[in-house]
Design brief:
The protein has helices at about 15-25, 45-55, 70-75, 80-90, 100-120, 130-140, 155-160, 165-170, 180-190, 210, 235-250, 265-275, 290-295, 310-320, 350-360, 365-380, 385-400, and strands at about 1-10, 30-40, 55-60, 125-130, 145-150, 175-180, 200, 225, 255-260, 280, 300-305, 325, 340-345. By secondary structure, the chain is of the alpha/beta class. α6 (about 130-140) links the parallel β4 and β5. α3 packs across α4, α4 packs across α5 and α11 (about 235-250) packs across α15.
């Protein structure tokens, strides 16, 4: 079966789970066309991402001017269908998070998409994230393109479901994948019961090569690692506040912030204000292998997020036999279990975060190793990429 994947930006450092999914589908015999809006100028640190970039078609690589000719071609070839889809695009722009001119651009991107899909012989299109990428494939379908589906991750889609017309996208889709039961429940809120059956749970997954490695002993150093974009939803500022509390109590602690992002300046300023330069290190963007090394060099992963879907980085840490300290928001508690394979605490609660950090640092290595082994078994049961891709494959074949 020939399918297309459409993503807003691909490849991307934080979207390795999409690459894993595509490659797993190819292992199962699918021919997969990669299409993205942008990504050719993104910083890439993985050789696999560089390879994926060479396989990807980019809608905006020629700039917005490159969208005019496809629009004229579709208008000339099927004027009635174009005008009907134009009305749909304008409806999507009503009470939306972005004004209607953006939705006209999405329509022109859909026109650019069509000849690529037809030339490839795509029987189905799948998008990741229920925002503009899904709107583009929905409009392409309305123009006569193949059926579409999409994966909803959260938290962005759940922050503004009415303003991205999430319900309309679900109603028109062949099916929708949610990455957790929590995500599925949020989709149920925005469509009638008659559409609930098309919402399926398909987890993000890990390749077996990632976790088929010998166990590495928990280090004796009091080090914790936080992996993710430095942004407001990940809660790194709260982590610095908790580190200050523990440092004032004389608790030895090291924190590695593995990642980069728009809040790096604010985080560095707070570190300097509290005099925590010796306790906190920011790596900037690093490769998957470097992330793995940082996880193995730490006693546990800490992720004090304010909003999430179900973070892949939690799965990665658990696959490396490291327990996790994180908040019980969204789908996280479906994977992390208090006292068994990690610590759960309320989002935004700095005192409870500090208490969890102190408890983790006080545990002997054998306790952390036992929790790490439980984490390993749990993630293998729920997040194997070939198992999850097989679920998607069955859904794609059902739509053919």
């Amino acid at each position: 079966m020939r399918i297309a994947y459409f993503i807003n930006q691909y490849p991307k450092v934080s979207h390795s789970f999409i690459r894993r999914e595509i490659l797993a589908l190819e292992r199962q015999g699918f021919a997969v066309q990669r299409i993205a809006l942008r990504g050719w100028d993104a910083e890439l640190v993985d050789d696999e991402d560089a390879s994926e970039r060479d396989k990807t078609c980019y809608v905006l690589q020629g700039g917005v001017k490159g969208l005019l000719l496809p629009v004229l071609q579709v208008l000339r070839a099927q004027p009635r269908r174009f005008l009907s889809t134009l009305r749909l695009a304008l409806r999507m722009g009503r009470r939306a998070d972005r004004p209607w001119p953006y939705h006209l651009i999405y329509l022109s991107e859909a026109c650019r998409l069509l000849p690529w899909l037809h030339a490839f012989g795509a029987e189905h299109v799948h998008a990741h994230f229920g925002t503009n990428s899904t709107e583009v494939v929905m409009l392409a379908n309305a123009l006569g393109g193949p059926a579409y589906s999409f994966t909803v991750h959260g938290p962005e889609e759940f922050d503004k479901p009415q303003f991205i017309h999430l319900g309309e996208k679900v109603r028109r889709a062949a099916f929708v994948a949610a990455i957790s039961s929590y995500g599925r429940s949020q989709l149920f809120r925005w469509v009638a019961h008659a559409h609930w059956a098309k919402v399926k749970v398909v987890h993000c997954g890990l390749e077996r090569a990632f976790h088929d490695v010998p166990a590495v002993a928990v280090p004796s150093v009091p080090r914790l690692v936080c992996v993710g974009r430095l942004c407001e939803q990940k809660g790194q500022l709260l982590l610095i506040e908790a580190a200050r509390i523990l440092a004032a109590q004389g608790v030895a602690i090291e924190i590695v912030l593995a990642g980069d992002g728009e809040m790096r300046g604010q985080i560095e300023a707070l570190i300097a204000l509290y005099g925590l330069q010796a306790q906190v290190r920011i790596t900037g963007w690093i490769s998957s292998e470097q992330v793995r090394a940082e996880m193995l060099a730490a006693r546990a992963l800490v992720l004090p997020s304010f909003a999430e879907g179900l973070p892949v980085v939690i799965m990665e840490a658990m696959a490396l036999r490291r327990p996790v300290l994180t908040t019980y928001v969204a789908g996280i508690s479906e994977l992390v279990r208090q006292g068994e394979n990690g610590w759960l605490f309320p989002a935004g609660a700095v005192d409870e975060l500090a208490a969890a950090l102190a408890d983790c640092l006080a545990q002997p290595a054998e306790v952390l190793q036992r929790m790490g082994e439980a984490a390993y078994q749990r993630v293998l049961e729920r997040h194997d990429i070939d198992t999850e891709a097989a679920k998607l494959a069955d859904l794609f074949r059902t739509q053919a």
